[in-house]
Every structure is written in structure tokens, then in C-alpha cells.
Design brief:
The complex is a heterodimer. By secondary structure, chain A is mostly helical. Helices cover about 65% and strands about 5% of the residues of chain A. Chain A has 15 helices and 2 strands. Helices cover about 70% and strands about 0% of the residues of chain B. In chain B, helix 2 runs antiparallel to helix 3, helix 4 crosses helix 8 and helix 8 crosses helix 9. The chains are: A mainly alpha, B mainly alpha.
């Protein structure tokens, strides 16, 4: 048997989860293997360490939780009435309606229409809403309930000025929530094409989020190029430094250092936090080219 | 002391006091599970609330096919996972970032410490903090498996039933979680030489 298998058995052994036969084979192996003996000792140390710290929840927290629960229970019907059998649809209706109201509200109400009240499933069908991306958050019916999440969508076509609040809301939604990276790039490009003054604060925030957190390097790159052109403010500078220190893509880190260099040349001051992060980049950057440029920038700023 | 079964039967007949007794018998464990899993007192209270409201609604249909504790923890596991998904949907919220407009500006990690060092008079020492950090490094499933096995003493086959997966999968999670916990706490283990 492979050594790795015995290593796995060590973890199971300390919790008494091996069969007699497995335990006996492990014991035989331990007689011959110093590494596994050492590992077993360390695992027992770990158990002792964890057992020495079995703090229970703070009493105040438990009291708060109980008080909240009592309040919620008072608002409920007594259990005897719950005993009356609800029709199956009745049990499903509440979570579905809640999920629907959330998504309909998010996709339509919040962006374009007055906020929508929870609707019955029949209403969605009547309004021509399609259901998509259905996920079972809780598919276990043992407690009598299911929890589902889905998109209730209707196709809407809109042509309006860039500054139109509805267009801005769609751009914001595309930047923050659209699953297709191609669409997110298109949204960034649309923002890039528009004159800077009309970019709203929320769009600016969404661009910063995209630069820092979007999983797609193409989206981050495009958003970075927009930010790099923007009037420099502390939040933009911090986003650039975030890319320099954290982005896994060296091309993006180069673009970030280039933008920061132009700040230094343009005598835009770098704040203390930015300088600290820059120092971190100098010490942790593995790419020689970027590290040297970061170092040069740091020296230049300090010289100023 | 009345058995779980007696209390549950009374609660099923509408006896609110019996329901409260059964809650108080288990709720500290559920809150501890939620706190270790979410690492946040407010989130833990939300999990607690949701778990027992689900229990309240479902108890009339509980038919004693499993131990009440197992059934209860299964619901808790479901709620923990649901809660995690809801947390993930919050935009870019991380453990190290400020809690937003309504928050105090303290990090999530600090909030845990603040909560536990406040009026509740529970001192969180360095070791607690290190264990919190180590648990945080585990994936949600690894963390749940580890918490349920180590702190709640459930057998792996019971955990597999709660998670609706194969026992082998749970074994792998436990192995990986243990290895990562050991790595995370290596310095402490070496220092203490327990």
C-alpha cells in the first residue's frame, strides 16, 4: 500500500474512524515508518492544542440569539396549527415568491421600474417572465421546505443617451453582475468611449471593483486602461497599486506601474498608504522588470 | 430530565414550553457550530435563528427516523451552506475588509474579537485567534467536516449523511482539513511542544 494512503489513515485513526483491520495495518506500518510516527505525534499535538481551547459562544451572544428566536416564535402560529397539512404548493410558494421578488426587484424594479411586490408564480407566467439559472440552495426536503434561486427575466430593448439613468443602471449592472465577460468588456468599452465628466461616481466605483476583483484578465485590463486615463484620485491610485501588488497577470502589473509612473512625473503626490504598498511591491515582486521599475518609482517619489 | 422524544412529542402537540426546552438543550452547540463556521457573531446569530425557525416549522413532521441531534445538525449544515452562498453574493466582501456603511470600520476578524471581548467577558486569547485564522483557511466544506468531527463528535458516516455525499469524500475532506490546520498552527505546535 502506498505511503500516502497510510498518511490519510493517520488523520482517521486519531478520530477512531478506522476499521479494526485498517488500524492493525496502520500499526504495522508505524513500526517501520519513522515519518508516519512523527506525523502521528504531531496530529495528537494538534488535537491537544484544539482541545485546550474549547471556548463556548459568549453567554451574551446566546442570550441575544434566544431573545430574537423568542420574538420570531411569538410572531408565528402555534405548532399545533402548523400540524395542519399545508398543500404542497403552499409550502413552496413562500420561498419561490421571495426569491422571485428579490430577482425581479433586482433585475427590473431596481434598475428601471418601480419596485415590484412579491408575485405569485402564475403572475410571472402571465407577464411573460422566463425562468433561468435555477439553483437549489436547499434541496433537502427533510425540514419540509426547499430554497431555490433563479432568474426571472424579461427581454427589454432600450436606446437612450449615455447619461440616461436607465442606461447608467444597465452599465452598472453589466459591470458588476453580468456573467459573460464579453459583455463586461463591452460595458467598460462603452464607459471608455464616453467623455470623462459624465462618468458617474457609481460607474467609477464599478470600474475600480472590476480592476481589483473581476476574475477575467481581459476585463481587468480594459477597466485599468479607463482608470489610467481618469483624473487621479486616491481611490483610483489605490486601485492601481492594488493591481501592482496583487494582480497575477504581469502585463496588468506593468500597466499599473506605468500609470503610477506618470503620476510621479506629473507631480501627483502618492499618499502614504500607496507608498507603503509600493514598498511591498518592491520587496515581494518576482518579476525583475516590474520590481526594478517599482524601485525606481519609489526612489523618484522619495527624491521629490 | 425528560427525554428528547418526550419533549418533541409534547412540542408536536403544540407545547411551546417543551419546544423551548428542546431548543435550550441543543442551541449552544448550534451557535458554537455557526460561530466556528461563519467566524462572525452576527452571521452566527442569523444561522441560529434560521435553523430553529426551520426546526419549528418542520418539527410537526419529524418522525424519529433519525436522532433528533442528527436531524437538527443536518438542518444546520444546510443553513450554513445557504448562508455562505448569500455571503458570497455580497459584493466583494472579505474577512479583512471594513463592514461597510453600517459597520464600524473594523475588519470582520476584529469584529469577532470585539464581540467576544466586550460585555460578554469572554477573553479571546491569541490561541483562539490562531485557531480562528486556521479554520478560515479551510474551504467551507472542509471547515464544516472538521468542526462536526472534531468539536461536535459526529461520526464520518453521519457527516456524510448530513452533507449528502459519500463517506470517502468526507474522509478526504477531514484529511485535507487536518493537514491544513496542522500547517497553519505549526508554529504554535512547535512553540508549545504539547
Amino acid at each position: 500500500m502506498k505511503h500516502e494512503r497510510f498518511r490519510q489513515w493517520l488523520s482517521l485513526s486519531i478520530y477512531g474512524e478506522l476499521s479494526e483491520d485498517e488500524q492493525s495495518r496502520l500499526s504495522e506500518h508505524l513500526e517501520k515508518c519513522q515519518t508516519c510516527r512523527q506525523e502521528l505525534t504531531e496530529l495528537r499535538r494538534l488535537q491537544s492544542l484544539l482541545d485546550s481551547n474549547l471556548a463556548e459562544p459568549p453567554p451574551g451572544l446566546l442570550a441575544e440569539a434566544r431573545a430574537q428566536l423568542r420574538g420570531s416564535l411569538r410572531a408565528q402560529r402555534p405548532p399545533s396549527r402548523v400540524l395542519s397539512l399545508l398543500p404542497p404548493l403552499g409550502r413552496l410558494q413562500t420561498p419561490i415568491a421571495l426569491a422571485a421578488s428579490l430577482l425581479v426587484g433586482l433585475l427590473l424594479g431596481r434598475w428601471m421600474l418601480p419596485s415590484a411586490a412579491p408575485e405569485a408564480p402564475d403572475d410571472w407566467l402571465a407577464r411573460g417572465l422566463g425562468l433561468a439559472n435555477i439553483q437549489f440552495l436547499d434541496a433537502d426536503p427533510s425540514d419540509g421546505e426547499l430554497e431555490v434561486r433563479f432568474d426571472a427575466v424579461r427581454t427589454i430593448q432600450l436606446r437612450a443617451a449615455f447619461s440616461d439613468p436607465r442606461i447608467q443602471a444597465v452599465l452598472l449592472g453589466a459591470l458588476r453582475a453580468e456573467g459573460n465577460p464579453g459583455t463586461r468588456i463591452q460595458a467598460v468599452a462603452a464607459v471608455q468611449e464616453e467623455a470623462a465628466p459624465s462618468r458617474s461616481e457609481s460607474l467609477r466605483g464599478a470600474l475600480i471593483e472590476a480592476v481589483k476583483f473581476d476574475e477575467n484578465a481581459g476585463v481587468r485590463k480594459r477597466a485599468l486602461s479607463v482608470l489610467a486615463e481618469m483624473p487621479r484620485r486616491a481611490d483610483v491610485q489605490r486601485a492601481l497599486i492594488h493591481v501592482l501588488v496583487h494582480d497575477p497577470n504581469p502585463g496588468l502589473r506593468v500597466a499599473a506601474i506605468t500609470a503610477l509612473e506618470s503620476d510621479a512625473v506629473g507631480e501627483v503626490s502618492l499618499d502614504q498608504e500607496t507608498l507603503r504598498q509600493l514598498e511591498q511591491s518592491v520587496s515581494s515582486e518576482k518579476n525583475d522588470f516590474i520590481r526594478l521599475r517599482s524601485k525606481a518609482l519609489l526612489e523618484e517619489v522619495r527624491f521629490q | 430530565m425528560q427525554s428528547d422524544e418526550t419533549l418533541i412529542l409534547r412540542a408536536q402537540r403544540g407545547d411551546v414550553e417543551a419546544f423551548e426546552q428542546i431548543v435550550h438543550r441543543y442551541d449552544q452547540r448550534i451557535l458554537a457550530l455557526a460561530l466556528r463556521y461563519t467566524q462572525d457573531p452576527d452571521e452566527a446569530k442569523d444561522v441560529y435563528q434560521e435553523v430553529f425557525m426551520r426546526v419549528y416549522r418542520a418539527l410537526p413532521r419529524f418522525q424519529f427516523r433519525s436522532q433528533f441531534a442528527t436531524w437538527l445538525h443536518r438542518i444546520a449544515v444546510n443553513v450554513c451552506f445557504t448562508q455562505r452562498r448569500q455571503l458570497q453574493r455580497r459584493s466583494h466582501l472579505s474577512l479583512d475588509e471594513p463592514r461597510g456603511a453600517a459597520g464600524t470600520g473594523a475588519s470582520w476578524g476584529e469584529m469577532i474579537l470585539d464581540e467576544r471581548t466586550g460585555e460578554d467577558r469572554v477573553l479571546v486569547d491569541e490561541l483562539s485567534s490562531q485557531i480562528h485564522d486556521a479554520l478560515r483557511e479551510l474551504s467551507p466544506t472542509q471547515r464544516l467536516v472538521f468542526i462536526l468531527r472534531h468539536y461536535h463528535d459526529f461520526k464520518l458516516r453521519e457527516i456524510a449523511a448530513m452533507l449528502r455525499c459519500a463517506e470517502g469524500t468526507v474522509k478526504r475532506h477531514l484529511f485535507t482539513a487536518t493537514r491544513r490546520m496542522r500547517r497553519q498552527l505549526q508554529t504554535r505546535l512547535s512553540e508549545q511542544g504539547i
